[in-house]
Amino acid sequence: MSLKAILTWMRLPSADRAVSNVWINDDIRPLEPERRTWNTMTFISFWLVNQVAISNWQLGASLVATGLSVWQVIIATLIGKVIISLVAIFNGYTGAEWHIGFPVVSRYIWGPYGSFIAIVQRIILSLVWFSVQSWTGGLCISVILSALFPSFQRLGNVFPASSHLDTKQFVGWILFNVSMIPVLWIHPHKIKRVLLI
Q: Which segments cross the bilayer (predicted)?
């Protein structure tokens, strides 16, 4: 089987648009009105959910562990969140106004080929952040399994001490990633109801 045949087999059908390539596809086209289901409350809920994520609690605990007092941690966190909010608002303005995504914005700033540099940087950042989040989720799954099944705590370790990883943590990480696979099939415009709960 040739590479061209494999790529043709993997290509998703394009129902109403004939053109779909690296320069234009459904992920790059402006969002259609019927898919613009989020309102102000949905966006507020989305950002509030992000702020109560475990990684934010870890941030505060880590800053206290470095020697900062609680009030210093609160002030530093608030200043950081305000800066991040302003950057997110300014960065997201084009998407909110013209319903275009990051790849399109990168193209009119960097050009069609220069935008690949910005996109690769964003991919690397996403992979690093996914790694952090999936590891934290795996640790949570490991704790849940230990609470539900005390024998899970006695699971033998097959990893060397130099790996800074034990079998329980690895099992939790694998289970977390497997449990996240179905979530990948949910389009962002369909999760409005979940965010408002």
A: 38-57, 69-90, 123-150, 170-187
